[in-house]
Amino acid sequence: MRHLIPLAGLMLLPPGPVRSQPLPDRQPGLFRVVNATDQDGMQFYLVRPGEAWGNSRIGHPLAPGAALTLRASPASGCKVNLRLVLADGQEVGARDHDICALPTVTLHRPGLPPPARGRLA
Fold first, then answer.
1. Is residue 14 part of a domain?
2. Quick one: which of 15, 69, 102, 103 has the fewest CB in 10 Å?
3. Domain tally for the chain?
4. Which secondary-structure segment (H or E) carries 43?
5. Cβ burial, residue 93 (10 Å; 0-12/13-18/19+)
6. Exposure of 50 by Cβ count < 10 A (0-12 exposed, 13-18 middle, 19+ buried)?
7. Residue 38 CA: distances (Å) to CA of 25, 69, 85, 112
8. What are the pLDDT digits (tens) for 63-107?
9. In contact, 33 and 41? CB cutoff 8 Å
10. Residue 80 counted as domain residue
11. Regarding predicted confidence, which is higher, 82 or 16?
12. Does any domain span residue 2?
């Protein structure tokens, strides 16, 4: 019986208009890119959708299991295209990835499971 008292109190609240709060503007910030392959990443590209790839954004290999932590400018938006060129010449990547909603991007070879969790940095 004592569980019914708080519920009864809620029913006595006067009804009011339901107001939806505006969603805050989504702003990109810090995000991580994880090399979940078995190869060193030799080149890494990051652009907004529709832009040319440009130059690689790393100057040294990204080891298997290692991660890059990057900061996106607020003007860049949430959607990005990413591409990692591996030591064997193959590429892994993601298109139209939303770094605001999913700030960790794990890149692995299609059709192969990513390495065991303990291996990721």
1. no
2. 15
3. 1
4. strand 41-47
5. middle
6. exposed
7. 38, 20, 12, 11
8. 999 999 999 888 888 999 999 999 999 999 999 999 999 999 999
9. no
10. yes
11. 82
12. no
Q: How far apart are CA 21 and CA 28, in angstroms?
A: 21
CATH number, domain with residue 87: 2.60.40.2890
> Which spans in the chain are helix H?
4-11
Asked whether residue 52 is assigned to any structural domain, the reply reads yes
* Predicted TM-score (pTM) above 0.85: no
For residue 68, give the amino acid letter: L
Residues 6+ apart with CB under 8 A from 82: 33, 44, 45, 46, 93, 94, 97, 105, 107
Segments forming the whole domain that contains residue 32: 26-109
For residue 44, the number of C-alpha atoms closer than 13 Å in the C-beta half-sphere is 21
